[in-house]
Amino acid sequence: MIDYIEAKSILSPLKGGPDPYFGIKYNMNLYRGCQHQCIYCDTRSKVYRIGDLSHIRIKKNAIELLEKKLKSLRNKGTIGTGSMNDPYMPIEKKEKLTHNALKIIRKYNYPVHIITKSNLVLRDLDILADISKTYVAVSFTITAISDSISKQIEPFAPVTSERLLVMRALSEQGIYTGAVLTPVLPFITDTKENIAGIVDAVANVGGNYIISWMGMTQREGHREYYYHKLDEKFPGIKAKYQKYFGDSYNCNSPNADKLYKVLNEKCQLNNLSQRMKFWKPDTPMQLDLF
Ligand code: SF4
Q1: Protein residue with its CA nearest to atom 7 in ligand 1
Q2: Which of 21, 241, 281, 290 has the largest CB neighbor count within 10 A?
């Protein structure tokens, strides 16, 4: 189901200032719901009150609200998009909310960090190249090096190999890009081969960084859906989760220590950073990067 809604605000400042992993100061959500339907998606958690994740709500006044906000905002900081939905999910091709929001961000010289799984981001390459004079980072969530696993756990998103091709294209155009290697699903993607394969692949396509956490979170609303999908796609695994994690929010892989070791060694070998470079006020991005 797809609906148009009127939004009250479009940018929400992060409590406590920029987050330590991505340096984001404001979250921008142009849509509610996400068409990619990843089985592990935390947006299904009841705390967010999103309801049915597959019910897409398009914020029809988003661009006007964004322009009004950026015109009056005194406190510049990185605008992040992609934590509650994918800003390049299929509907974006027609609706162009992300495209038009980026034009506004360019107009007011704001830094931006995009998290996506989609190749549609390439459509906006020229705008991103302009914004990169201030600061732009495009992070691709990559959780499984195998396309068939990726298809099982992220059913309506472009598979991993497609994301890597887009990362290469962005990197070749000088756009700061890398991977978010999380969630790591216990008993499914928490293997040394998977982690090593992702690091090698990201380095191979010219990615600049990998931000990782060797586990996943689970909360009410999200957990029930995930377990239902485990029964459907990975029979027998749910019982392991129930035994290991019970009602825990943080569900670290039992292999986490070994996986971090592989991650660290591989990142070092490939000269890949495990920290992102953030936008800094009055520091031209190009000087910071090259
Ligand atoms: S792309 Fe992100 S927001 Fe969309 S379903 Fe997947 S994890 Fe959730």
Answers
A1: 41
A2: 241
285 occurs within a structural domain: no
- Residue closest via CA to ligand 1's atom 3 equals 85
Answering whether pTM is above 0.70, one says yes
| pLDDT tens sequence across 38-79 | 999 999 999 999 999 999 999 999 999 999 999 999 889 999
CATH code (residue 25): 3.20.20.70
pLDDT in tens, 69-89: 999 998 899 999 999 999 999
Ligand 1 pocket check for 38: Cβ under 6 Å: yes
Instruction: Tell me if 157 CB under 6 Å of ligand 1.
Output: yes
Whether 284 maps to a domain, the answer reads no
**Smallest Cα–Cα separation from 284: which of 81, 171, 182, 134?**
134
Q: Give residue 152's domain range.
A: 2-277
Flag whether 283 is in a domain.
no
Residue 262 lies in a domain: yes
| Residue from 31, 34, 44 whose mutation best tests the ligand 1 pocket (most atoms within 8 A of CB) | 34
Note the residue count of the chain. 290
- How many domains, in total, are found in the chain? 1
